[in-house]
Amino acid sequence: MESTRGSFPPPHFSFQWPWRRVYYCGDQGFEGEGIRVNGMATDTDMKDTILEFVERINAHDVDGILDLMSDDYRFINSAGDTFRGKAFMRATWRAQFVQYPDFQIRIDHVLADGGAVGLFGMASGTLTRDGEILDENHWEIPSAFLGIARDGKMVHWQVFSDTSMVFDLIKANE
What we know:
Elements: E1 12-16, E2 21-25, E3 30-32, E4 35-36, H1 43-58, H2 62-67, E5 69-76, E6 82-84, H3 86-99, E7 104-112, E8 117-129, E9 132-150, E10 153-161, H4 164-172
């Protein structure tokens, strides 16, 4: 029997990260939740794809956003709800840009590794009321985003932010 003592990682093992189980499969690389990490594009390619995704969001380019989504794209909102499907995402982005016509993501820091890109900054927008943009309905919240891309397409986009301020504005404007 061949020993794997002293080598890391051993040929096959798994361990638990706080948010997902990760498997190592010998030469195949890391895998988790069906998203292959090794064998993806380089960190730079993935980072470029994800930053392009943010640019398309900031341009309110719904068709451009959808063009960057893979067929197995997954979106997880700040409440932890998971959504899939381009038709749903098309309707969601259109509604977002109507409700917050000045919505923007500002990226201050980017961290990339072989499996994902973390973006840190602010999200901002102004809730419209009867088609009007009023200063008192403007919000800006610290936000983090986790992006994963494969072959120039987004497969995962997750938002981390405290959106209670936004929901308070919505309630106050009902």
